[in-house]
Amino acid sequence: MNQLQSMRVFVKVADLGSFVGAAGALDLSTAVVTRHVADLEARLSTRLLNRTTRRLSLTESGMTYLERVRHILDDLDGVEQMVVARNHEPVGTLRIVAPVVFGLHSLAPVVQSYAARYPNVVPDVTLADRQADLVDEGFDVGILVARPMRSASIVTRRLTTGYMTVCATPAYLAQHGTPRRPEDLLTHPCLSRPAEQGGEERVFTGPDGEVRVRPTNAIVANNTEMLRQFALLGMGVAILPSYLIGRDLAAGRLVPLLGDYHLPPIEITIAYASRLHLPAKVRTFIDHLVAHFEQTDRQARDPRATAVALSKAITQVAGHDDVEDDLPVPDLSADTARPVHKAARERVVAASF
């Protein structure tokens, strides 16, 4: 029989001084209760109870055993209560792993608002541009950017979609002209990642279908934040994710290009070990993260925000020969705010990332 259950039965019999009373309290038959105590005595090769027709009493060994077993059961109950509380109340260390650039530009405000809401949880964030093994490395959740995780033990959930945007500074465009088609990138210095990270051939989809180009690299870097810095310095044309440059586009520091063409989207997901018995800290963080990006997605679809961003871009590039005369004011009530400058035809997507 189950030794732990036998210990619980023995304590109840000792406390009530009766097999019948213990059976009723534990919702067991008297025969089962008697068997549990007999099994304990057989295991220990020691009599724990003196039995008479009128009463039960503890032997000396029984008193010693009862005292120690009671402490063991109390400790076990305390551990179980603590684990149950952790599963229902957010508490403890929450280990998160995310790509470096996404973490720096998009994750910090989410972690800050979560920590403010759940002060008993301590976020422990690791930034790494590699696919971490959540189970082996002890991470509670992982953020994946354009990197699927296939594992029977891992659950993934979509957070949002990012977009790659061709962009340059207004000063660069004023000096070097504005690319109109993907092929025009061949005549501009481009800022790119190494080929193994997707830095060579680019596949655009436009009015005439698919267009493949291999931009001429002026600078290669394995970190997109470094490429953003190069782009802001006016060193060439860059192709960067929306979650990295959304604020630069909205502020007009960078101008979106090739608005009639788009590159494949970037799926951003959250991964965690299992759907079953998730600790409260993990469950609440996942919900908080999903809600945050649902809000930013709604804001990104707001045509008024898009129109404001486009107006700033127009102001920044105004004055050189790519600006059309008599620019109309963006229609803030339209379903979609269309860019009115040829150098700003790419949608400003997810500017709040």
TrEMBL record:
PROSITE patterns: HTH_LYSR. Residues 1-59 form the HTH lysR-type domain. GO terms for molecular function: DNA-binding transcription factor activity; sequence-specific DNA binding. The keyword Transcription regulation applies. Pfam families: HTH_1, LysR_substrate. Keywords: DNA-binding, Transcription, Transcription regulation. InterPro entries: LysR-type_TF_proteobact-type, LysR_HTH_N, LysR_subst-bd, WH-like_DNA-bd_sf, WH_DNA-bd_sf. Coiled coil: none annotated. GO terms for biological process: DNA-templated transcription. The keyword Transcription applies. Belongs to the LysR transcriptional regulatory family. This is LysR family transcriptional regulator. It comes from Paraburkholderia ginsengiterrae.
